[in-house]
Each structure stands twice: as structure tokens, then as C-alpha cells.
Design brief:
Blueprint (H helix, E strand, L loop, with lengths): L2 E6 L2 E6 L7 H14 L15 E5 L5 E2 L5 H4 L5 E6 L14 E5 L6 H8 L3 E5 L1 H19 L26 H15 L8 H12 L3 E2 L13 H11 L4 E4 L3 E4 H7 L11 H6 L3 H31 L9 H5 L4 H14 L7 H5 L10 H4 L1 H23 L7 E3 L4 E3 L7 H29 L1 H4 L16 H17 L21 H31 L8 H11 L12 H12 L2 H16 L28
Parallel strand pairs: 1-5, 6-7
Antiparallel strand pairs: 1-2, 3-4, 3-5, 8-9, 9-10, 11-12
């Protein structure tokens, strides 16, 4: 069923659409109903009256006509903004005229690439990149003029560039990332692309003229041939393209609508456009950026759960972690201390059980630094692999203008990003695995001392029972998705390409795993905030109260059973937008500034991240 995400004021609302012949007016009214449902006062919107509003797409900023049908003007999973009369359009995610990002093939980062996908920048080349591209092309022109036999230059490379695979397509943001990354790699000057063709690609990117690109069909060696062939196909005026101005249409008409001409390929340019790991790497860049965001927010959510379950902070003492000084473990433990330290942030909840007789907590709380920590270290490892791959020449053959020769090699093989992304999926999944067990503890009255499933009048209300089932099912699905795709290989191209990486699937399933992790942690955050309701009037630490207030700004407390999907979607959006992190970060930074890393007399190492006095700070369960 098609689904659209509608932004109203500070909330994101998922709106399913069973009938795509419904109008844009219907979509807006349905979104308003959901918005008002989450607000005790209907969000200040008078009930029973027709509310006037306008709508536009977030991608491209195009205003939508209320009488147009959904199927005519929107794509599945599109993001739409609704502005109520008297409100102004949100500036949060809509860029002003984009600035320019200069590409040289050497300095693009994963974060840059994601921002390019979001339309925050246009592209231009550095002068040095243009010089190298020209030199490389001049060598190829000489080879052609002298009738030398060189693979991919004066020989063919197949007709698959015109083969259409009927599968799900990449969304516009991911296609923008793919095109930007291909431009960056060609800008290195080792592929023999002409400056004219490269400028044409940049013009298409800057106009958001995006080819239809299937998300399936690559084996990851020789690079991502099929997806990149589709990327090139639209630039040649063949197949389908999309732009905010035209929507989906024949590529030649989309280019024409923007005053652009189809690319006319010169010798070697066909293979230069399709040979490389850019599909794997662009999806991998999105995966690693989202993984970083959810990993640090997982620490905040787990800290809130520990508060609700009246856990101890003793397990986060810096001396413990200095004895096993993995960087991620130390980072997570410090983050927990910065959110829970009872001297820095007094907590009435913590004070209420300070002298209880519990000695230690379950592993799902006590071992967060160890479990979350290896995830952070893995993400950092993968981040380095992806950033290297983003700025690597992965074409074949390589054109060395300074040596006056071309050399065939194997830089197109996707094993590096494939293995790294399989590793990423396994590591990030663990955040979901441990989160689901914490959700169980929150919902189970024998473990939480809270009402069963976090709701009054159990039986009449099921509370978080089904939400926990949802989390469990996603964890189970992730277990299958975490099977490494890169352990597989099938020979292709008449046994010439006899070992492949399967990196495309590694990237796609890593993204799916990460999305599931985000959704599971959204459920835990909802459950922890619901648990707080049963501990009132006691308050938690200041940073965690701010997190609670953020959640309550989009989801009201669970008094009786209601449709929970919008709640989960709303909190999932908070995590994607990193709003949970942004609320807590000032307190984390302040704590780290005031508690300067310093070794203590008699400490076995100098890895401590707290002051010498910290062993005498108050901790829970003394």
C-alpha cells in the first residue's frame, strides 16, 4: 500500500493511501486528522471546521494542486509539507538556493554524499580535477587515432546498457547520491572521460534530472554494471528520468525541459560510466551515516530505560572501563555517566531507591558499554572503508596520462565495501537485539515493578503488548538479514568474472537492518517514556527529562488503547532527524568539558574519563 510522510508544524505523520485516485486535498485532510488526534487540544485547530491549508513536495519544493490525484503528482514514500493557513512553511528541511560543493575525486565524505542526496548542494569541479580529466582524455584520443587495440576503448563491452530490469527503483535521494559519487570518481582523472561529458553529468545533477535506476541487478564485480548502466541510459536520453519539474517522463523530454542535451558517448566513455562500485558505496554511505546517528541515540534511550527500571550506575565507573580500554566501550560508558551522574544531574527517581538491596542489574543494562561499544567501533571501521571507497578510482582500464598508458586491473571489485557492510549489519543489529530485551523488562511487571505492558486496566487495555511483539518480529527478521551476502559468489560473463562480491545486496540489507533497529529503539523510547508516567511525580535527570519532553511533544501518554502505528512513526522520525541526540548533546558536551580526563593515583591506566574524585561520587544501590 502506498504511504506518504506529511510534515505538519514540528511533526512527521505517516499517511497510508489505499486508493491513489484520492486527491491531494484528501491527503491533507487525512494528515490533519492524525495530527489533531495526537494533541489534547487538537493542536489549536478548531474541531468540526474546514481548515485551509496548502501543500508542497519536500523534494523540489513544488506546490501541489488540491484537486490533483495522488497518483498523478506523488511517488510512493514521498515527503510532503502541509502548511495551515497562517503558518509559514518549515525551513528545517527545505534548502535555500543550494551552495556548491567542489569535487576533486579525493576529499568527498560520506556525510557530504548524503547531503548531496538531500539536495543541499550543487556540484562543480576543482581546477585541478578539470586538468587531470583533460590529460586523461587526450591520451585516449591518441590511442583511438593510432588504432591501438585496448579493451573498452577500441573494443566493445556489450549491449547491457539498454537492458531494462523491472524491479524496484532507487528513490530520488539515493539516485542523486549515486550520480554525485560517479561524478566524483570520474573527476579523479583516471577514467578517460571527456570534460564535456563530465560537465553534462554535473548539469544533470544540478537540475536534479535523475535516471530510473533499479535497486537490484548488481553482483558487485565488475562493479555495479547494471545500475550504473541505467544511470548512464537516462543521461543519453534513453529510458525514463525524473525531475522535480517534470516528474517521471521519457528521459529526452526531461532533459529538454531543463535545456539539456543527451550525452553523446566517445570511445571508452561507455565503460567509464558503468564500471565501479558506486551503487554499493553510495548506499553504504547512507547506511553508515544512519548507523552513527542511531548508535549514539541508543545510549540515550538505554539510559532512560535504566532510570525507569531503577538500575545502578556503578557498572559505568570509569575505572572498570580503563581495564578494557576499547574506544567504543569507553565512549558509551562516559555517555551514560554524562546522562545519569547523580552529582551533575540529580534524579528523584534515583534517590528513591538509593539504599535498596539490589547489587547489580541484568546484562541488558549493565553491559551496554560493552555491547553498544563494539557497535560504535565497527561503525567507525566501516566509515573509514566507505570514505576511502568514495574517493577511489574503481574503473577499468585505468588511464595514466603521466605514464602515457592504460592498465587493466581489478579496482572495480566490490569486496571491500561488501565485507564492511555485512559487518555493519551484524554490529548494528545488536543494538536492536539488546533493546528488545529491555522492552521486555519494561513490559514485564515481575521485572519492572510497573503495571503489565505499561498500561492501567490490563485486560481491557493491552498497552505495549503488541508493540513488543513488533520489536521481537523485527529482531527475528534481522537475524536472517544479517547473514553475510559477501560469502556468496557466482561466476558471470562466461567465467571471466569468476568471483564477485554480492555487495549490492550487502548494502541494501544493511539499510533494511538499520531501519529495523531505528524502529525497535523508537518502541523502547516510547515504552520508557510511558514507564516514567507511573513514577511521577518523581523526575529523572535534566537531560533525560528533556528527552521525555521531546517525545511528549509528538506523542501523548498511553491512557487507553489506541492505534499505535502513528506514535511509532512519529518517534522513528525523531530518531532519523537526530532530535533525541540534539536535545541531549549539550548536556553530554558540558559534562565532558567539566570532567577532564585524568588518571588517578594507583589507577592501572590513564584511560579514565572522569575526575579523580569520581569514585566517591554517589552511585545507585550503595
Amino acid at each position: 500500500m502506498p504511504r506518504f510522510t506529511v510534515h505538519i508544524r514540528d511533526e512527521w505523520l505517516a499517511v497510508p493511501c489505499r486508493d491513489i485516485t484520492n486527491t491531494i486535498r484528501w491527503l491533507g485532510q487525512e494528515a490533519l486528522k492524525r495530527y489533531m488526534k495526537n494533541k489534547p487540544d487538537n493542536g489549536g485547530i478548531p474541531a468540526g471546521k474546514d481548515t485551509r491549508f496548502s501543500m508542497r513536495r519536500c523534494q523540489g519544493l513544488g506546490l501541489l494542486d488540491a484537486d490533483d490525484t495522488v497518483e498523478d503528482v506523488l511517488e510512493d514514500n514521498d515527503f510532503v509539507e502541509l502548511a495551515i493557513e497562517g503558518d509559514t512553511m518549515s525551513p528545517d528541511f527545505i534548502p535555500c538556493e543550494p551552495g556548491y560543493l567542489s569535487l576533486d575525486g579525493n576529499s568527498l565524505t560520506a556525510n557530504d554524499l548524503v547531503n548531496l542526496g538531500r539536495g543541499l548542494y550543487k556540484i562543480k569541479l576543482t581546477g585541478e580535477a578539470e586538468r587531470k580529466v583533460v590529460q586523461s582524455r587526450e591520451l585516449l584520443d591518441t590511442i583511438v587515432k593510432e588504432n591501438k587495440v585496448v579493451y573498452g576503448i577500441t573494443t566493445g563491452f556489450g549491449k547491457f546498457a539498454r537492458t531494462v530490469i523491472t524491479v524496484n527503483k532507487l528513490n530520488p535521494e539515493r539516485t542523486r547520491m549515486l550520480l554525485a559519487l560517479r561524478i566524483n570518481v570520474l573527476a579523479k582523472g583516471y577514467s578517460g572521460i571527456s570534460l564535456e561529458t563530465l560537465h553534462a553529468m554535473i548539469q544533470a545533477f544540478n537540475a536534479s534530472c535523475l535516471s530510473f535506476v533499479p535497486e537490484k541487478g548488481t553482483v558487485g564485480a565488475s562493479g555495479d554494471l547494471a545500475p550504473l548502466a541505467h544511470l548512464a541510459l537516462g543521461l543519453m536520453g534513453e529510458g525514463k528520468m525524473w525531475s522535480p519539474k517534470s516528474g517521471w517522463a521519457d528521459a529526452k523530454y526531461v532533459l529538454e525541459a531543463h535545456g539539456l542535451k543527451p550525452i553523446s558517448l566517445k570511445p571508452k566513455e561507455g565503460i567509464a560510466l558503468i564500471n565501479g562500485t558506486q551503487m554499493i558505496t553510495s548506499l553504504g554511505a547512507e547506511a553508515v551515516e544512519r548507523a552513527q546517528a542511531i548508535a549514539r541515540q541508543a545510549d540515550i534511550i538505554a539510559a532512560l530505560t535504566l532510570e525507569v527500571l531503577k538500575g545502578t550506575t556503578k557498572a559505568f565507573d570509569s575505572d572498570i572501563h580503563s581495564l578494557r580500554p576499547h574506544p567504543g566501550q569507553i565512549e558509551v560508558a562516559q555517555r551514560f555517566r554524562s546522562l545519569l551522574d547523580s552529582d551533575h544531574h540529580p534524579s528523584e527517581i534515583a534517590e528513591s531507591h538509593r539504599f535498596c538491596d539490589r547489587v547489580q542489574d541484568a546484562y541488558t543494562m549493565r553491559c551496554c558499554p560493552q555491547v553498544h561499544g563494539i557497535t560504535i567501533d565497527t561503525i567507525n571501521f566501516v566509515h573509514n572503508i566507505i570514505n576511502t571507497e568514495i574517493n577511489s578510482a574503481t574503473d577499468n582500464p585505468m588511464v595514466f596520462a603521466e605514464r602515457g598508458e592504460t592498465i587493466s586491473g581489478g579496482n572495480f571489485h566490490g569486496e571491500y565495501p561488501a565485507k564492511a557492510l555485512d559487518f555493519l549489519a551484524i554490529a548494528v543489529h545488536e543494538l536492536a537485539s539488546i533493546s528488545e530485551r529491555r522492552i521486555e523488562r519494561l513490559c514485564n511487571p515481575s521485572l519492572s515493578e510497573l503495571p503489565a505492558f505499561l498500561v492501567n486496566e490490563g485486560g481491557l487495555n493491552s498497552g505495549f503488548m503488541i508493540a513488543h511483539c513488533t520489536a521481537a518480529s523485527l529482531v527475528s527478521e534481522n537475524k536472517v538479514l544479517c547473514h553475510p551476502s559477501s560469502v556468496d559468489s557466482l561466476s558471470t560473463s562466461a567465467a571471466t568474472e569468476d568471483h564477485v562480491s554480492m555487495g549490492g545486496w550487502a548494502a541494501r540489507k544493511a539499510l533494511r537492518v538499520i531501519e529495523h533497529v531505528e524502529q525497535i529503539l523508537a518502541i523502547e523510547l516510547l515504552a520508557a517514556c510511558q514507564g516514567i508516567e507511573f513514577l511521577r511525580p518523581l523526575r529523572t535527570t535534566t537531560p533525560l527529562e528533556k528527552v521525555y519532553e521531546l517525545v511528549r511533544s509528538v506523542v501523548k501518554p498511553w491512557i487507553k488503547d489506541r492505534f499505535m502505528s502513528p506514535d511509532i512513526e512519529a518517534v522513528h522520525r525523531l530518531l532519523i532527524d537526530q532530535k533525541v541526540w540534539n536535545v541531549a548533546k549539550p548536556y553530554i558536551d558540558k559534562y565532558q568539558t567539566e570532567y577532564i580526563p585524568e588518571s588517578r593515583p594507583g589507577s592501572p591506566t590513564a584511560f579514565s574519563l572522569e575526575s579523580p574524585a569520581s569514585p566517591r561520587k554517589r552511585v545507585r544501590h550503595e
